[in-house]
Design brief:
Layout: H1 16-26, H2 31-38, H3 42-49, H4 62-72, H5 77-87, H6 101-104, H7 106-135
Helix pairs in contact: 2-3, 4-5
Length: 136
């Protein structure tokens, strides 16, 4: 396989990096020119063409980088992103954040606090009424 040929995986589908590199070379552009036009670091072009998305500063944005690069080279976006989705590592499931234990029992705390307040108000009312009845 020559350096001009795009990488082909076992399913006969070129990788997104190989597709982008072949299109860039067909247009006679250098990685530096691509980086300048997209306002990227030059290394981003290299990482993407090697399908090394984990080396990007923000790997979560790799799909957007591939899309922007493809638009610059006027490639079929659907085909390019399908190739990207086939080679990217599976995303880890989103972490479910639990609220702290003290916040989960807030409803019970509010109910108890209101009950104590009602008892205090009732106690003061009863105390005041007993003073006025006993005072006369």
């Amino acid at each position: 396989m020559g350096s001009e040929e795009p990488y082909v995986d076992s399913q006969s589908r070129p990788s997104p990096g190989a597709m982008l590199q072949a299109a860039r070379q067909a247009r006679g552009m250098t990685p530096q020119e691509v980086a300048q036009q997209l306002n990227w670091l030059r290394e981003y072009v290299t990482f993407i063409e090697r399908d090394d998305f984990a080396s990007l500063r923000r790997p979560a944005f790799a799909r957007g980088y591939v899309r922007a690069y493809g638009r610059l080279l006027q490639l079929d976006e659907a085909m390019l992103l399908a190739a990207f989705d086939a080679v990217r590592p599976p995303a880890s499931p989103p972490r479910v954040r639990r609220r702290p234990q003290q916040l989960q029992k807030t409803g019970l705390g509010i109910a108890l606090g209101l009950a104590v307040l009602v008892l205090l108000v009732f106690g003061l009312w009863w105390f005041q009424s007993s003073l006025t009845v006993g005072g006369n």
